[in-house]
């Protein structure tokens, strides 16, 4: 960093940065014009010159504060970190004016370092915190004005004269339906009741997606030749009306007119014998497989008169 920036540029950028304080955003922007200097390095320079206003962007200090994970080394993230430092500093300075932003950062760093590297010492410090508070209530120790509690989220530690509280963030799980006797939803919406069931076989190609990355022409075509589906229908110009058509395959001899092979005439779309009208009222819908399997045991055979 020293080799890539001239001495005059470093002095000029540093002077401009400290003049902008307490505006941290402009101060950091003035320092980041230097090569190899980001928000973290700029915070170290500002902390060295103005520890009462600026805190260093230390990883452990940021990890100790709630809502700052995952860590980011950007100007916006540093400003979020400093906002929480200022809130804690404001509470502490009500009891002791000598607290600085750099001291708050060091306190947070110490707590996080003990939490990760020496948990027994952290527990000992927490137990010492409760003992000192109990002695203080009995009048055997320092006055209560020398102790201050800062809430950050739940467990406590007393470092110096500051007690920090940490814990788990609150999480409200979403409400879900419980079906103890089966799987799937417990109830069916009214608009989906009494709908006919459409059976599908494993050969039906449903939900296929298209790929534009390679040649897929004919990839999903049938190896046994294409045939018309029994459920196919043809749209008319009016989208509101449709008609069922007979798409069964017509048996044709091998030789057609002129005694030539494979000279079959094209299939003709046969219109339905009964045209469905818009004025008709739908009583019940029934597909062909269900209709063919219906039986009427209570109806006697017909009698010719």
From TrEMBL:
GO molecular function, one term: RNA binding
One Gene Ontology cellular component annotation held by this UniProt entry: eukaryotic translation initiation factor 3 complex
Full protein name: Eukaryotic translation initiation factor 3 subunit D
Recorded superkingdom: Eukaryota
Record-linked Pfam families: eIF-3_zeta (PF05091)
Organism: Magallana gigas
Keywords attached to this entry: Cytoplasm, Initiation factor, Protein biosynthesis, RNA-binding
Lineage: Eukaryota, Metazoa, Spiralia, Lophotrochozoa, Mollusca
Alphabetical list of PANTHER family matching this protein: AMUN, ISOFORM A
Keyword Cytoplasm: yes
């Amino acid at each position: 960093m020293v080799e890539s920036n001239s001495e005059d540029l470093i002095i000029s950028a540093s002077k401009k940065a400290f003049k902008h304080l307490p505006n941290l955003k402009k101060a950091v922007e003035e320092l980041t014009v230097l090569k190899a200097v980001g928000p973290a390095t700029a915070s170290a320079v500002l902390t060295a010159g103005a520890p009462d206003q600026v805190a260093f962007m230390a990883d452990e200090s940021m990890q100790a504060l709630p809502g700052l994970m995952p860590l980011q080394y950007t100007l916006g993230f540093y400003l979020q970190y400093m906002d929480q430092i200022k809130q804690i500093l404001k509470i502490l300075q009500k009891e002791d004016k000598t607290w600085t932003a750099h001291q708050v950062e060091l306190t947070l760093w110490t707590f996080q370092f003990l939490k990760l590297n020496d948990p027994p010492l952290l527990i000992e410090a927490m137990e010492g915190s409760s003992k000192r508070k109990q002695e203080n209530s009995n009048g055997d120790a320092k006055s209560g004005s020398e102790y201050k509690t800062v809430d950050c989220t739940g467990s406590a530690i007393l470092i110096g004269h500051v007690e920090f509280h940490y814990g788990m963030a609150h999480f409200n799980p979403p409400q879900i339906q419980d079906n103890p006797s089966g799987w799937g939803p417990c109830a069916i919406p009214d608009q989906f009741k009494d709908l006919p069931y459409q059976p599908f076989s494993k050969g039906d190609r449903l939900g296929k997606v298209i790929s534009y990355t390679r040649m897929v022409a004919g990839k999903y075509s049938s190896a046994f030749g294409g045939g018309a589906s029994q459920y196919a229908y043809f749209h008319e110009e009016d989208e509101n009306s449709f008609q069922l058509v007979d798409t069964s395959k017509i048996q044709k001899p091998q030789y057609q007119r002129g005694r030539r092979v494979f000279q079959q005439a094209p299939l003709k779309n046969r219109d339905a014998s009964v045209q469905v009208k818009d004025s008709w009222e739908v009583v019940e819908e029934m597909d062909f497989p269900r209709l063919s399997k219906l039986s009427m045991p209570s109806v006697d055979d017909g009698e010719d008169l």
